[in-house]
Write a structure and sequence with these properties.
about 170 residues; Rubrerythrin, domain 2; three-stranded antiparallel beta sheet; Ferredoxin Thioredoxin Reductase; about 10% strand; two-stranded antiparallel ribbon; about 30% helix; alpha+beta
């Protein structure tokens, strides 16, 4: 059972993480705490902190893109001033100088990709791949890059779990 203490504690943790990384939370604290309640509900229900405003289908590995903060947050903030659920907002929205508009959901349920499809994307990057001693992993949350045999257990920048990393270069 989720109680007010759990919501307040998680809200403060999210707010501290956001501010230390240069992000802002929605100034309407009651609204933001309702979103945090939804995140906690999803965590209780599914075992991970899925965005409360998106439909979670299947296991964690199929929903890595919508674990809060989701993969779409930064582009949503750039394009619309808020993320899809409006938990995170831009500087201008936080300052009250830009109005908040409704935004479209960028997420589409992934189609089954063909083997080798991801590799084709990485090979278009102008890097001599055969000279790298280790694969490069990218944090899908904050963009942190690291070259090592496997992704870190947690991202040293944003604290995301290792399964939020993707192989960026081989």
């Amino acid at each position: 059972m989720i109680n007010r203490f759990d919501i307040d504690r998680r809200y403060l943790a999210i707010k501290e993480q956001a501010e230390s990384s240069g992000y802002h939370l929605n100034a309407d604290e009651d609204f933001a705490k309702e979103l945090v309640h939804g995140i906690l509900t999803n965590e209780e229900r599914y075992g991970f902190a899925a965005c409360p405003c998106r439909l979670c289908i299947g296991p964690r590995k199929d929903n890595l893109d919508i674990i809060c903060p989701c993969d779409y947050r930064d582009q949503d903030i750039i394009d619309y001033g808020i993320c899809y659920c409006a938990l995170y907002v831009s500087n201008d929205v936080a300052a009250g100088t830009t109005p908040v508009l409704c935004i479209p959901d960028r997420r589409s349920l992934p189609a089954k990709s063909e083997p080798g499809e991801a590799e084709a994307v990485t090979q278009s990057i102008p890097v001599k791949v055969d000279t790298l001693p280790f694969p490069v992993y990218r944090c899908r949350v904050c963009g942190y890059l690291c070259a090592r045999t496997s992704p870190p257990e947690t991202c040293p920048i944003c604290g995301a779990a290792s399964d939020r990393f993707e192989k960026y270069l081989q």
